[in-house]
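Hi all, long-time lurker, first post. I run a small reading group and we've been trying to get comfortable going from sequence to structure in the token notation. Rather than ask abstract questions, I figured I'd post a concrete chain and ask someone more experienced to write out its structure so we can walk through it together at our next meeting. Sequence below, copied exactly:
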Amino acid sequence: MTKTDSISYHKEFGGKLAVVSKVEIENREDLSLAYTPGVSEVSKYVAEDVTRAWEVTGKGNAVAVVTDGSAVLGLGNIGAEAALPVMEGKAVLFKELGGVDAYPILIKTQDNQTIIDLVKNIAPGFGGINLEDIAAPNCFVIEEALQGIGIPVFHDDQWGTAIVVLAALQNALEVVDKNFTKVKVVVSGAGAAGMSISKLLLRRGVGDLILVDSKGIIYDGREGMNEYKREIADISNFNKLTGAIEDALVGADVFIGVSKGGIVNKTMIEKMSSKAIVFAMANPDPEIMPEEARLGGAFIVGTGRSDFDNQINNLLAFPGIFKGALSVRATSITMEMKLAAVEAIAASVTKPTVNKIVPDPLDKSVTDRVAVAVADAWREKIESDKKG
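-- Answer (accepted) --
Happy to help. Here is the structure in token form:
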């Protein structure tokens, strides 16, 4: 595929989305049922109880894919219009893999409060909100502020990526016969994905976690950190290791990169432990190319790219998570639901190998497994809440 191939593809179709009617309007009776005068009765029915919108409209299968265009793929802050092709692609994947109707919502402003207010005000038309390609730390502020609006709000760049990384790591550790609670993990990148990966790994009890940002290793007491980095510093790197990424990687069992291409080399990998696991997920250029990582002694290598083995892609998570949440009218995506998704993805590979630690991103059966697991986790929450 060349650069012009994709542009030509998009020009040919004029984008990737269209609205398709569920019903046919072939005569006046159809018109009167679908629109006036019949639809007024439906509106009155909903006005009496707004939860009825889930029964008589598409709300129950609708997700808004919301972005301000501030952190699009590896392209950075390219703005709302330039983000639209990506949001259309996301919507297509929602539909193709999960059967969920997703709609791109492009916001011109990058002011947190304006975005928060806008999402709250469009929420009545949707069953869920998928925040997408919003830069850190704004994404943390926005997602947190939108919890409790009555429908799930989920930042996929944070949690979708973290869920698939944890599932991949569980299977990779099984292959190398290492214990999760005893391994040293280095995470490069303290943006949306890196912070949530770190939180999820710490939640699962990883032995030692070192988070590295553009200024070096994060440790308790380091100056110039925002509140989110300080939060991670308080619960990780207990030895207060300092220095750069090469210092962090000495003796590490696992490297997880969600930062930028080319920042790790063969010599750094050589200093990791035996049977090292390397997830170099920067796109389009990984932190280290798979071949170089293997030359450095990496035993298992994964990337975010589809042209290498072990593609660690949030596509394995978000369609099933929303499909499951919508099916039970969940009002949030809880940590238990996220961990249920991890287990469902990991279990989709029955016998993990060096070159197969995650399922194929286009395997629709994974979406269904994740949806069932997420729905079950929500039901368990409801039952637990009832019992007090």
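A couple of things your group might point at:
The chain has a mean pLDDT of 95.
Residues 14-151 form a domain with the Rossmann fold fold (CATH 3.40.50.10380).
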